[in-house]
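Need tokens for this chain, all 389 residues.
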Amino acid sequence: MSDQSAADETPTPPSGSHVLVSGASFAGLATAFWLVRLGYQVTVVEAAGGLRKGGTPVDIEGETIGILQRMGLFDAVRAMALPPRAFEFKDAEDRTLGGFGLDTSAEAPPRNRFEIHRDDLLEILASAIDGSVELLFGRSIKRLEDETDGVNVTLDDGTRRTFALVFGCDGNRSNTRKLVFGDEEDFTYFMGGYVYLKVVPVTDMLPPNVSQVFSVPGRTAMLNGYDDRTDIGLAFRTAGEIEYDYRDRAQQRAMIRDHFAGLGWKVPVALKHVDTDDDFYFDRIGQIRMPYWSKGRVALVGDAGYCVSPVAGMGGSMAIIGAGRITESLKRHGADYAAAFQEYHDRLQGFVEEVQKRAANEGMAMIFPADDAEISERDRKLRDGELDL
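Here are the structure tokens for all 389 residues:
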């Protein structure tokens, strides 16, 4: 993986070219940060009325640490990092089948993986671009027309503007991708299940700084304990995709209750939180797989182009890596955006495919086993010390 940076030196501004970033996500905020460093005038549009807060923590590791260091943000991330956590696999009687403990001895190796609450990372990234970009909340792109001298953009309020480049950083259901590349179903890889995630302000379900997993064939419950909250994850496997209304929260809650009713362990306690409100995430477990992440003057970054799925555990990291990589290529190629976009794809594609393959195969079988055979193999790996997260 590359270890170069778009911020190693002050670049020559590309004639103050005005560019558009769609989505104030990890990918969008990080991309905007680097584009400002490259001398671009940056506008960020976000369909929501503010930063999209809530959700489970994100892992920061590998190349992402180096990128955050070059952004000057790693110290802030490390200061907000959560304590290391143990990981335990449980049976119906709450007995520990195996897992990974915490090495707190003096001989323990230095940390090379950090976990931070999603809201905290968003605030750190947003603060880093505060005052340096035009940030438009409550706005989305309605139409994109890629011309020889720029991209004509029509926003949903009727505003029309022209940008030198457009960056789609608007998630796995990207509006930018749909407008430029077509139907999202052409690029969605279904991994065989659905997942429900909810953060609740309770701390009595399990100890802090511990993750616990309970599985029966085709159904898995996961709890992540913190000092002030608990993450609830409920996932079920299916042979094919199911029809449901993604706007109907009551229908989604009913599906979760139906699939998990009657299970033991701590599942009944978790289900009591399902009907408390509509503040949860529910979606198919899937990836975005595309042959190319750019077309003309438009490029996709993060989940919009190569969502690796929650199973991979590095969606936030991949977004920051993608932002660093694409702006690194833009710095190298200057006004030749086509060459920059091609290099961005060529240099990152192999890593993305490796992460996606690992998540779709080993990750699903380990965290969301589909049948008795996968559970037995997971338990064998636990006994033999072959399981690695």
